[in-house]
Amino acid sequence: MLVPAALAVLTNFGLSIWFAHEFGLVGVFLATAFTAAALLVPLIRPALRATGATASDFLGQSLRPAVVPALAASLGAAAGYIVDPPLGQLLLGSSLGVLAWATTTWRLALSRAEREELRTSLVGH
Fold first, then answer.
1. How far apart are CA 125 and CA 121, in angstroms?
2. Signed CA dihedral, 61, 62, 63, 66: sign only
3. What is the Cα–Cα distance from 35 to 57, expressed in whole angstroms?
4. Where are the domains of the chain?
5. Which of 36, 80, 89, 108 is most deeply packed, by most CB within 10 A?
């Protein structure tokens, strides 16, 4: 598991530098997203074997809640890239990304009981 992770770190570093020159801050985000997705492929079998989980467990309980927020954040980053000037890119991309992440995490990653517990701790009722 260490070798694929080390390769992903080096690849992420190289792509981040390259994409930063091409796309700005959005490029660094894209480089990280690409290398994270690529790292998943060589690590999925050892991770399933180590945890005893099945592929359907992994897809349903781990990957699905992470993919939707990541895709939504990617759309936010892409929208931020279209807006000019760079400050507009940063503000729009970040705002849309955080909003998309929060919304999809609330619906997909948290159970009903966890949402109620969070509401209670924030509101106090």
1. 8
2. positive
3. 23
4. 1-52, 59-125
5. 80
